[in-house]
Design brief:
Strand order of the largest sheet: 4-3-5-2-6
Helix content: 25-40%
Shape: globular
CATH superfamily of the largest domain: Bordetella uptake gene, domain 1
Distance between the termini: 36 Å
CATH topology of the largest domain: D-Maltodextrin-Binding Protein, domain 2
């Protein structure tokens, strides 16, 4: 996006990228919300889970995710749990019968949240091992046999383990977070976490958490950004995701492109933050402990 977006903005400005790590994207979100200039010159790209933090976090949030101005999202994603083909976890029944060491990143990220939700709602025996750094750390952990399971996103699993859904990898996907029956993991037969939940309330809690994967790359602007700047950037973003050069780069990275407009992201988050209080409470309960 950094390489291609500028061509679709009037004047063709160069786009300079910088990294702001920390707190699973929440530091970046807070910076854009409170510090960044409101003239369209700063665009944030936090992890999607940062947009849910004000609703699911334990403390008072320092930003309101519904008040960002969204330029769009270039991808949708899905959480998947994977294990070694020659390890103790052959399928979901494996983590129902015996404890499985499960690698995870920092608290508040899907790598640890998804197995926590699965454990709370289905009785699965995930033992979460935190402290790994990025997907590279998780993948090395499972490749070395340090952990039995990891639950990253499909977007990072697909290019690193080509053929994993066709039995051409040493690993297998045995669970998926989303309920989209058209996704690649679904077509390969991986069961969804929602389908394993035993009550309507639990299924609704899973669906609420997984909504974040529908906007896996949320490009956002500060609240009260100039309407003119928002219009220009939303148009530029929509043009970029259909740009042949951009799409060629994505194919080269084995990355899927799925556009969601900024307006649709605003509507999605409005619905999420208007969720039934019982569903929110059940999800927070599922996330409460390891």
């Amino acid at each position: 996006m950094q390489r291609h977006l500028g061509r679709h903005v009037p004047g063709a400005p160069s786009i300079a990228g910088s990294s702001m790590a920390g707190a699973a994207g929440k530091i970046l979100a807070r910076h854009v919300y409170t510090v960044a200039p409101r003239d369209g010159t700063v665009i944030g790209l936090p992890f999607a889970n940062a947009l849910f933090e004000p609703m699911l976090g334990a403390g008072a949030a320092s930003y309101d995710a519904t008040k960002f101005v969204y330029a769009g999202s270039a991808s949708m994603d899905e959480s998947v749990c994977m294990a070694s083909r020659d390890g103790p976890v052959a399928d979901f029944r494996g983590v129902s019968r015996r404890e499985a060491a499960t690698g995870a990143l920092s608290p508040g990220t899907p790598s640890g949240d998804v197995p926590k939700i699965a454990a709370s709602l289905t009785g699965a025996k995930f033992r979460i091992v935190r402290g790994y750094s990025g997907f590279q750390g998780l993948s090395l952990a499972i490749e070395r046999g340090e952990v039995d399971v990891i639950c990253p996103s499909w977007a990072v699993v697909k290019p690193r383990y080509p053929g994993i859904l066709e039995g051409k990898s040493q690993f297998r996907v045995f669970l998926r977070g989303g309920s989209d029956e058209g996704s690649e993991p679904a077509k390969a037969g991986a069961p969804s976490l929602a389908s394993l939940a035993s009550t309507d309330l639990d299924r609704a809690a899973v669906e609420l958490y997984m909504a974040q994967f529908r906007v896996a790359s949320p490009f956002l602007l500060p609240p009260n950004v100039s309407p003119a700047a928002a219009t220009v950037l939303r148009k530029a973003f929509a043009e970029t995701v259909t740009d042949p050069e951009y799409l060629a780069d994505a194919r080269g990275l084995n990355a899927d492109v799925a556009f969601t407009s900024g307006e649709d992201i605003q509507r999605l988050l409005a619905r999420v933050y208007d969720s039934d209080a019982r569903v929110v409470a059940r999800l927070k309960q599922a996330l409460a402990g390891d």
